[in-house]
Each structure stands twice: as structure tokens, then as C-alpha cells.
Amino acid sequence: xxxxxxxxxxxxxxxxxxxxxxxxxxxxxxxxxxxxxxxxxxxxxxxxxxxxxxxxxxxxxxxxxxxxxxxxxxxxxxxxxxxxxxxxxxxxxxxxxxxxxxxxxxxxxxxxxxxxxxxxxxxxxxxxxxxxxxxxxxxxxxxxxxxxxxxxxxxxxxxxxxxxxxxxxxxxxxxxxxxxxxxxxxxxxxxxxxxxxxxxxxxxxxxxxxxxxxxxxxxxxxxxxxxxxxxxxxxxxxxxxxxxxxxxxxxxxxxxxxxxxxxxxxxxxxxxxxxxxxxxxxxxxxxxxxxxxxxxxxxxxxxxxxxxxxxxxxxxxxxxxxxxxxxxxxxxxxxxxxxxxxxxxxxxxxxxxxxxxxxxxxxxxxxxxxxxxxxxxxxxxxxxxxxxxxxxxxxxxxxxxxxxxxxxxxxxxxxxxxxxxxxx
Amino acid sequence: xxxxxxxxxxxxxxxxxxxxxxxxxxxxxxxxxxxxxxxxxxxxxxxxxxxxxxxxxxxxxxxxxxxxxxxxxxxxxxxxxxxxxxxxxxxxxxxxxxxxxxxxxxxxxxxxxxxxxxxxxxxxxxxxxxxxxxxxxxxxxxxxxxxxxxxxxxxxxxxxxxxxxxxxxxxxxxxxxxxxxxxxxxxxxxxxxxxxxxxxxxxxxxxxxxxxxxxxxxxxxxxxxxxxxxxxxxxxxxxxxxxxxxxxxxxxxxxxxxxxxxxxxxxxxxxxxxxxxxxxxxxxxxxxxxxxxxxxxxxxxxxxxxxxxxxxxxxxxxxxxxxxxxxxxxxxxxxxxxxxxxxxxxxxxxxxxxxxxxxxxxxxxxxxxxxxxxxxxxxxxxxxxxxxxxxxxxxxxxxxxxxxxxxxxxxxxxxxxxxxxxxx
Amino acid sequence: xxxxxxxxxxxxxxxxxxxxxxxxxxxxxxxxxxxxxxxxxxxxxxxxxxxxxxxxxxxxxxxxxxxxxxxxxxxxxxxxxxxxxxxxxxxxxxxxxxxxxxxxxxxxxxxxxxxxxxxxxxxxxxxxxxxxxxxxxxxxxxxxxxxxxxxxxxxxxxxxxxxxxxxxxxxxxxxxxxxxxxxxxxxxxxxxxxxxxxxxxxxxxxxxxxxxxxxxxxxxxxxxxxxxxxxxxxxxxxxxxxxxxxxxxxxxxxxxxxxxxxxxxxxxxxxxxxxxxxxxxxxxxxxxxxxxxxxxxxxxxxxxxxxxxxxxxxxxxxxxxxxxxxxxxxxxxxxxxxxxxxxxxxxxxxxxxxxxxxxxxxxxxxxxxxxxxxxxxxxxxxxxxxxxxxxxxxxxxxxxxxxxxxxxxxxxxxxxxxxxxxxx
Amino acid sequence: xxxxxxxxxxxxxxxxxxxxxxxxxxxxxxxxxxxxxxxxxxxxxxxxxxxxxxxxxxxxxxxxxxxxxxxxxxxxxxxxxxxxxxxxxxxxxxxxxxxxxxxxxxxxxxxxxxxxxxxxxxxxxxxxxxxxxxxxxxxxxxxxxxxxxxxxxxxxxxxxxxxxxxxxxxxxxxxxxxxxxxxxxxxxxxxxxxxxxxxxxxxxxxxxxxxxxxxxxxxxxxxxxxxxxxxxxxxxxxxxxxxxxxxxxxxxxxxxxxxxxxxxxxxxxxxxxxxxxxxxxxxxxxxxxxxxxxxxxxxxxxxxxxxxxxxxxxxxxxxxxxxxxxxxxxxxxxxxxxxxxxxxxxxxxxxxxxxxxxxxxxxxxxxxxxxxxxxxxxxxxxxxxxxxxxxxxxxxxxxxxxxxxxxxxxxxxxxxxxxxxxxx
Lengths: 424, 424, 424, 424
Prior knowledge:
The structure is a homotetramer. Chain A is α+β, with helices and mostly antiparallel strands and about 425 residues long. Chain A is about 45% helix and about 20% strand. The first copy, chain A, is built from 16 helices and ten strands. In chain A, helix 12 packs across helix 15. Chain A is globular. At the A-B interface, helix 1, helix 2, helix 4, helix 5 and strand 1 of A face helix 1, helix 2, helix 3, helix 4 and helix 5 of B.
């Protein structure tokens, strides 16, 4: 038996040790027996509906006490328009990392960054990196580009019909822009890309979105544009869809490296060798050597861009600050680069082309999330670009700290020490 | 001026309208002025330290009231070992989606799934998909493989030295396995892959991890193995690192499609045409046509696998249930496939090769998170495989619902309606 | 022993059966013994130098007779400027596929396509697909975009310096364009993209190239622009390089799917069901089902775009027609899509965003290569766009034929039959 | 108008300047007018048939003289089983690069490498790199793995049926192996991987193939195995296909980096700093800096692995030596790495996981191709592994030379000088 099918066989054997093939088959069958009750569904949050839902969930007194604590009960109405089928709240602990000095085009100052996570060592690691960056005078950060997109598609009988449609469409740019922008106070249509594949036409409409992350804005504006197009075009598509999986929404995509999705930020810092030695117990040379090895590792495992663990900082910041946590999937791409400078110090740069962040809309107005934005001094209008720059610098802090730990042979110890004693 | 540099120029102009080049340059400079105080750092959670941190954060009474509410104050000690530099908690609303009938090898039953999100429409959409799956008799789900990995690297003077080391290593499999497994009650070393690149050697050690997500377990076991190897090998590597960015940890990677990371699950359901019509207001044919278009969109945008928005369900479930939310970055890869059956019904399958989930360890023991796992009936030992199957079926519910909404031209309306009325 | 290291061990064992570890080590050592003579090197082709090279190659009378046959000897001077260190010619057999009817924006007619290959079944398969397309009235083809690029990079001390440089550069667009275009009769700078990564600046300059493939033109024009920039900029980069591996030159890259490299063509055809049945012995439905399965296969194996075997047709056409055969590596990306039409027929579309083809320059002027272009009626100026469209339709012919063969269960038989009888 | 649609509009305008929309539409229409004659098709090569084909191609006396020269006419029968619809031969000039000293596990010696190309500068560049490697004592090279694959797929009504089939299949390993191997003298089934996606089952059967590239062998063996499975399985699949686009055949795929396709080779050399200075007119430091920049460029453009121009050497060697030139598409992935050693010298490594090469079968037995293999001393049985190692070292020579040229600012000049004087 060859190597790989032996692995499959081994797993199958463990299954068969538990169930016979017929047992397994039975488990996989559709079951048409009585349907359990549906969740009383509503976007409206009312104590009655919440109660009905808990009754449905049955004998779950303890769970209810935890999720529907007094504070959540008293304030449940604030979550209206952020959730449906509400039953309570989950609490995630917040730790503070900082100060993180950011010398950005938009962010200027020493930030204390609230991070929500349940993973030991995460805050300690980002805190360590932040402090080192600050001791080095802070990180330079530059927002390079911004724009959030929606990608409708049209199908036609033939390339020829598609061409006629496209010819008409390209001459209607001003009308499309006007219709799309009429739906939004802040959004501006800043790019319109075209991709033809046989009788399929994909458009990518990209918008600036002010201080909102902007996905809903982009959807609503594109929907209006799409309707206008369908009503006015003399060449009728066979079908049209508002989104054809070409915008990169909620998933890592190679295309974000060629342009922008959300906000694109690059950041850099130079850590003096002495700081690397004292703060990370290693040397710039060893960190750069590690970077070279890890770059090959990333390339061979088939990642999009090459970096270490952007996702840790992004997830913790996104959850704390009312961002869309699902966007971690798309935001966690980019590059980390380390070099030894001619002076023997450590130069570090990170670039994130796909930061979906905002300081208005989404979860940013919820009390505990807004509190976190307030700790940053970045709540409300006027702060989204600064938030993007701080986020990139935070990611850089995490890269510095984890690489330092791996190089100083402290990675395992830190995790073991901080996570020890977990409740069973 | 060409198209693309005009775009860059436009953005530059908006910058220059705000700052002169010299102003911008000044903003980007390192600042060596007085360092702000560090966060009083500790993994220990004590009211005193929490108070000191809030004092550091200054005049933030409102923020403190929200994050350090009475419930959080009373229970702060529970977060020890899950966070450092604690200052309070963020509250995310939970909505319930379900029932979701899962006919899995491990998960069997009708699940009410707690989802934590601040994005309107998410719970409503997953709820809709879940109910439809349940009405169709439930989704079949099969855990196909499992294993969590750590990827140390070694460098040598030459390929020749590397070869001598490898020759020694391959003959020490039993010792390595024994040393690694000696550090863990549940983890078993189930695979050891080898990748040679010039004078670099990468190992990928893969472990079963019982009911824990297992990253820390894999780290600790690999660390022990690595130390044993370094102490015993007659061929000394130039350098060795515990992780070389080749495990896929915290990032989407193409390699997960060829094997497994965490847990790999496939799931399927057949929705009768009538159910598609009544529940989604469209037809199997139109959904399959959309799937074809979206597959091209995904391929052209350069995603890893082709799916719609796994990340939404994953993030919401992971946050509610104490999973590592940063793993959304790696878990949100895989495939969604839709077909019209010979009977004219809709067949849907999803496959997720990289589900990092557990029912013990990490955040799973925290009260509100454990409450969520209890609602699922999946808290504690013995449930991780079932949780993986439920997660895959939840993702399928989301795919069905979003594709249905796009096909029925309801996508924009649903988002606009449910998100309207946001606090400013 | 686990599965994967057992595989490695097995291979190692076969090695060790042949050589001891020390033997292997010795084989890998650098050897400083006497250097063998260098090849008498020159771009000039002269009988004397050719003779000297053959003398160097020693007792190789048979080889010389084959490579330096009378025809090659008589005509050797024609290869000057296409090769260095000339010793003779390799002969590849050419087969004809066709007629291939192309209804393109630029290509119009019934083409007999010369294909150079040594792989049995290739010409037969492309011939079959071509004839079917022709019987269906021909393939529609549309050149969608064109442009060949070069990607220089600059490094700076800091992002700030980079920004100053960029500010200067963006205001020098006209000068750069003029300098670049001054080096070429046909090339026009049509796009200038900018990518910033920390203190690295990447530019992608894209040119139209008339009827040449254009890589050398793009290099020379960019070199002039680069020199002008370096001489005139008030902000000196630390380093600058003419190409930073960001143009996609000679390698498959995801970026080509978002834009163009060389020429981008889409093509389509509808094959009546009867033609599929009679010509391919299968049905549109089965071919579309196969397409669905093969799309998942492509996505899971991590390809760029999803197609079958574009490379076969590209390599055979490129070699026959004097194109740069190394560009098969980059050209063989794109999409193939098949659908059943409402009438039950088979719709097929292919899209190739990265066709590097030309009808002047490179190898296109060599006698046997030009003869092949003449068979196509596409030799010399004015034909590059048509050649791109014919190439895309040829690739479509190959996709139709191979999918038909797999669906009709004839794939293996065709290969076995046509390749049988190989010389030992 | 935004940037990107302006680009599209510009292109559209150039089209409309040439044709009206209606003209373009007319050009794209299927044309059912008289079918031109088919190519007299046959795998048999006979002077009569060749004559008939040339008659079909009409008034092409010059082309015929070039393609069907006396040498080709006299020897046409040798191409039987390598081509169909034969009409003559294309001649590509061959240049010699070398000596290339290879200290491989299998290749041992100083090789003069025949390269067929029509691109100026290619041979000169590979020659330069080869000589430098040789001066440094030669390159170490190690074949790491080998195996060629075929990937059939099966579909079932449900995951449950698939599971039953798989359970049966896993217990039939020995029979499958025996049936597959019964079709081949040299091929051995060495791995059988399984991938489940909903009700789809993909198998990847990997074979050793002796000294043949082995694709046909793998196809024939897999076909036999597939037929045996279909005849014997008690669980009937709905459909089965011999290849499901999951083997990586003829296309770059991320999966090859995790395993092998064909042959996997790694190679290394250390070039003394003085040699870099004298031979390349640059320094190890500058080349390593370039490598860092080019690595980011490769990662951002979305390539599979990160290298410079493997494709150039591969295409030239493959064409000269009777390899399958279409396999350049898949072979041109991998990694190039450069480092400065502690002694200040330049360490270079290349790794190619997907080398499809053989020394028997395919085009290797044709006279001019075999002559090239004879120049290498690698014709016939027993040499495929050595050929793979030489190929990898050749690719390394090309990487060294091109990076040196870019770093010494000689890249453009070399191309301009060697390509000047092209025939118009």
C-alpha cells in the first residue's frame, strides 16, 4: 500500500472501528422526521422575542444567565440593526497593547490599542512589538490608496452582443456615476474596471467610502447603477447579477495585491540593533535570516503575499473596534519585509493592500466597540484613514514580536507560560 | 497621462491639497520625544492592575463604564490565561440561526447555532439557509481528515550536510514521535512531511489533537522534538527555527486544498425545486447559472478554492463559540458547488479543508463562549469533530442563502433593510 | 512511521542501495580539477567557429551530421542575431491542423495551422477540434486588450524619500513617455502602474508594440526612461533595477488575469449537439458535466485560471511560427468554459490574457518559421492581432477535442494508438 | 471618466476608428459558407499524403522548399508516431552553453548543453552562467523525488455512496497496483492520493516511470486500473473520467510545490566574490539585494514559487533534446534563492519540483534530438535522472546570469547588442 492511501485507510479504519459502513450510511441519510421549531425571527429586538427564543432553546438557564446578563438585558435595543434573532451577548476580554507610536500621513500619536481575543500570548506579543516600535521613534505609515468594490456580471448570447452592450456602456460613464453616487452621501465612484470572458462581462465598480468600511454603500450604489443600466440599455443581457464573486469580498484574493480593496497601507520602522538585542534577545541578522527562510516557506505553501500572522492583530482589533470580523479573511494578505541596514540595524516594512476598516457604520457605534475606538481616539467621522494606518503598524508590531520570539527560541515558552492553567 | 498613473496622481493630489510635501515628510519622521508610559503589563488579572491601566488611558469614564461593566468587573479573573493587559470586555450581540439539521458522521441533530456579529443581515441570511437545509431533511456531512501542523526549518552549509542530517533523521522516526507525544495527553504525531530547498530543510509535523484546536499542543510537541533532534544529531544544522511559515498557520494557503489543516469536512444537501422557489424565490437552474459565473469570477480574482462568503459564518461562529477568530484567515478557503439534479432539484456541496476548531482549550471554557457551545450541545470533550461538521453545514447555509438572494435580486434590499437606522 | 516520511525513506533507501552516504557526499562536492575548454563563444556565425565548436564536442560525427546537415550548413548565416554559439539546427516535424475558421475582429478566414511537436496525438487532436469549429461556422474571436510590460524597481532610505521621488515622477509623465517612445518606432507607453512596498517602489510600464511581441522593445524603452529618471530626479534612489520580477515575464502570474500581458483574446463557438455526437461521440451535457468536475480539479490543484491544456497548442504553434517558446510558461493561463445552450447545443469559450505573439522580430523572420507564418497568411507587419486571435481559437480547438476524448472514453486509446511504435 | 474604463474606451475607440459596430458584429458572425477542404489526415507518413497536403496549401512553393527540404524529404518516415498530418520540418538553431559542471547524485561531469532558441542573448546568457558555475567547482544537484501522475475522478449520487465506494477501493490497493503495473515494463504505482469534494472523488495515481517522461505510461496504466475498478466495484459511480484536471498536466499548479510532478531537483553553488566581480561585474551583496526585491515582485504578481526565468532554459533544452515543450508551462515553477555566505561569497540555490523529462520515448529518439542528447552524453536508458539534474543546474546558470546582468546594468545592452540586425 502506498503512503497516501495508507493515511486515508488509517483514518477510515478509525471510523470503522466506531461505526459499520451501514451505520455510517444511515447517519448520512436525510431525515424527514418532524421539523423542530424555527427561531422566532425578527430584526426587531424586543424582550418578548428574546424570551421566546430562549424558551425554544430549552433548559439552558446557565447559558442564558451568561449571554443575557443584566447589562445586556438593559441595553438590548442598541443592537437593533446590527443583528437578527438576538438572544444576548458574548463577552470577549480586551487587553491593551501600547504605546504604539505612529507617524502616519493620517495617524499621528501614541496609541494604546484595545485587542479582543481569547488566545493567550496575543496581547503580550503585540504589546512587546508596539513598545519596541515606540522606543525606536515610531513607525512611519502611509495610506497609499483606497476604494471598496462591487462586481456585477452580465451574460449575453454572444461576444458580439456583449460588445454592443459594452460600447453603449462605455459612453454612459457619467450617467452611471451620477446614478450610483445619488444613493450615498460619501461614496464616489472612482474606478470602473471591465473584464470580458466569452459572453460574460464582469464590471468592478470601486468607490471611495468616506469613513465607512463601505461594503453596504458600494452594494446599494451598484444596485442603483445596475438597475439604471438594465432599464436603459438597448442591448438586453440574458442575465445580470449584482455580484459575481470578483470583488474579493470576504476572501483572500491575489488581485488585491495589484490594486486596493478597502485601504492600502505601507509602514516601516528601523529598530536599532541594541533594541533588538535588549528587547527581543536576538539580532537583526538572525531575524533577517529567519525572514529569508520564512519567505520560502510562505511561497512554497502557496500563500497570497508573504507575511507571518497579520490575522492575529487584525482579528483582535476588528472585534474590539466594531469592524467586520469576517473581513479578516481578505485583510490578512500582504507582505512583511526585514533587512539589516548599512548601520547594522533592523529595517521592517509591512504592506497591507486590503484593509476593510471604518470609523462609522457597522459595529462602530455600539457602546463597547465605540469605547474601544475612543481609547484609540479614532471614533466617528474623520478617522478611518488613521485607523487604517494604526492597524498596519499594529500588524508590524506583531510581526516583529513573533519573529523575535522564534529567533530567540522563546516562541514556545511564551505560549506555554501564558496559556497554562486553562480551565478544563 | 496614462490611466493608472492618473489614478495615483489623483490620490496624490488629494494628499497635497491637505499637506505640502514637506508637511508630509515631517509627519513620517521618527519622533524621539518623551516616551509615553507603558501599559502596566501582566498576564495576572487583578483589580489593581486593571485600575492602573484605566488611569493610564486617562479621561475615559464612558469607555470604562462600557468595557468594565459590573458583570465584567465581578468576573474578571476568569479571563486569566486568555488575555494579557486586561481592561474589560467587548460585547458582541448574538443571534440564533436554525434549526440546522446535520446528518454527519459525528454531528447528528437539529442545531441552533449562535452567531456573534455586528453586521446586519448576517444572522438572517444564515438562518434562512439553515431552515431550508432542515426542511430538505438536513445536510449530510463527513469529516474527511484531521491534523494540525507545525513546520520547523533547519539550514545547513550545503545540500550534502542536509542529506546526512536527513538520513539520520529518517531513521529516528520512532524517537521523534515518542518525544513529541510525551508532551501531550491527546496529541499524536500522524504525519511528517519533508521539503528540501537548497540547503534548507523544512519539516511539517502533523498531529491529531483530540478535541482541542491544537496549535499550542503542536507547538509544544514540536519544540520538544526539535530540542531532542538538536541534542542528538551528529550533523549540526547552522540554524533551526520552530516554525518557518510553512504550516499555513493564520493564513490562507493553497496547500490546505491538497491535504488538511485542522479538520477537513465535506457536506451536501439536495433542495427540492419547490423549496428553492418558495424559500429563495428563484430556481435551481438560475442558481447553478450563477454558480458558473461566480466560479469564473473567483478564478479570475485569484482566490484559493472557489466559494462565496464562508468567512461570514466562520467569523460569527468562531467568536461566539470561543474559537480563535484569527483562524478565519485560513479556514475561509474551500469550494462550493451547485448542480441541478436529474430530478430538477438543487444539489449543493461545500468542502472546507482547513477548519481550526475545538471544544476544549482556547476560549472555549470562558462563560459566555461555553454558553454558546452549550446551546449547540457541543461543549467540552468529545465534540470537536461534530463541531467541525456543523460549521461546514453552517457555511453551506450561508452559501445557499446569499446565492439565492443574488439570484432573486434581493441581495441589496435585504442588506439595506436590515442595516437601516444605524446609529450615526 | 507516518505516511509521508515513509515515502521519503523509501526514496532514500533506493539511493542508499546505489551509493553509501559517503559516496553521495563525495558526488556532491565541488571539484576544482582541470577546467574543460570553454565553448568558442560568439554571436557571429562563421563556419570556422562552428567547426571549432564541433571539435570541442569531440567524437560526435553522427550528431554533427544530423545537426549540421547540408541545408543548415549552407544557410547558417541566417541565424545570426537569433542565437549564439551556433552548432547546427534541430528539426521538429510539422503537422497541419485545419481548416480552422476564425471570425475575429482581426483574423478572418479559414486557417491551416502548422504545429511543431514530437508528441503523438497532438496534431490529430487539434485538427479534430479545428474541423469541428469550422463545421459549426467558425469561432468568434475578439482581441480585448494589448500591452507588453517591463517593471523596474527603486529603493530608498525611507517611505518619505520614496514619496518625494514619486511626487516628482508623477509630474514627469510626459517626459518619461517621450524618452521611452524615442527609442522605438512602434512602441507607445500606454500605462504606468505604481506599487509601493515599504521603501520599495515598483513601476510597471506597459507598451503597445505594433506587430512585434515587444519584450526587447519594452526593455530598451524602459531602460531609456530609467536612465532619464535617474539623471534628472532630485531625489536619488539607493538602488534601481530595470526589472524587478513584477512584469510576469516568462512565468505564469495571477496578475495577468486582472489585466493583460501581450495580447488578451476571448473566443467562443457553439457546436450543435449533432456535431458533438458525430464528431466527438459524446454529448454537450456530458462535456459540461466534465467541465464542472475539471473546474474543481483545477481549483484544488492551485492553477492560475482554469483550463485544460492550452500549453500543447501554444507550444506547437510558437515553435512552428518563430515565437518565443519560453513564453508558453506565461501564455498558458486563462479560462475554458462550456455550457449547454437553451437549444441543447454546446457553447465553448476560452479567454487567454497573456498571449505573447508577434509577426515581426524574434524568430519570425527565419526561413522555416516564416514559411509557417506564410501558410497561415500572417507573416510580417499587420498581422500580430490576427495571429493572437487564431492562437486563441486553436487553443479552443484543443480544449474541445481533449474534453470530447475524455468524455467518449477515447483519450487513452488515441494516445496509445498514435504513439505506438516509437523507436526504442 | 475613471482611469480603468478610460483605458477600455481608448482601446474601443481604436477599434471603432477601423470598423463600425455593425462591421465588427458582422465579422464575429458564424459563416456557413462552403467548407474548405480538410487536411488529408493520417498518422502514416507517406510522400503521397505529404504532397496532397501541400497541394491543399496552394501556391506555397517557398514555404514548401523550406519545410520540406531535401533532408526532411529523405527522412520523413522517422517522424511517424511523433506527428500527424506531416508536411515537413521547422529548423531551430542550436547553440552550445558550457561547460556546465554538475556534481549530482546522478549527473557527474562537465556538460556542453545544446539549446534551441530563436531569441538572441539566451544562449550567451546561459553559457556565461554555466562557465561561472564550472569555475566555482560546479553545482551540487540532488534529485529529491520523482513520480508522474494521472488524476481520474468519479461522481456519485451522494457522499454516502462515495464513502461505500471508497471503502471498497481502499481495500483493493494490491489489485489496482497490479492491474496498473501490468500495462508497463517500467512504471510502478508509488502513490495513490484521495481527494473528496461533496459527491466527487478524485484520485491521484503517481507512478515512477523509469527513463521516460511517462505521461503516456501513466495514462495507459491508469486507464487499465480505472476499467478494472469500474468492472469490479459493487458501488457504481454515476460517471467516471480518466483525468479530472487535478494532475497538473501541462499547467503551472501550486500543488507541485508540495510534492513532485515528474522529477524534483534542488541544486546549489557558491560563487566566490571575485568570480562575481570578474564574471558578472557586480557583487554578491548587490545580487542578494536584488533577490530580495525580486522576491517581493514575484509574490506581488502572484507567481507559483518565486524565480526569474526558468522557462528560457527549459524551453531551449526541451526543444533541443526531444522533450515535450508544452511541459514548460508546468516545469517553470520553483524557487531561486541567493545569499551572501559568511565569507562574503554568493550562495545560489534553485529548486524545481516539476521537471517532466525523459531520455527515452517522446521525441528523444528523433535524429537531431537524439544528437543533442548524445552531446550531453545522456541519450537512452539510464539517464533521465541525470538529465533532470543537469536541467536544474542549467536553470541556475540562467538565474545567475540574468541577475548579474540586471545588477551590473548590462541587461538591456546585452539584449540590444545580440538582437540587433534582425531581418525585417
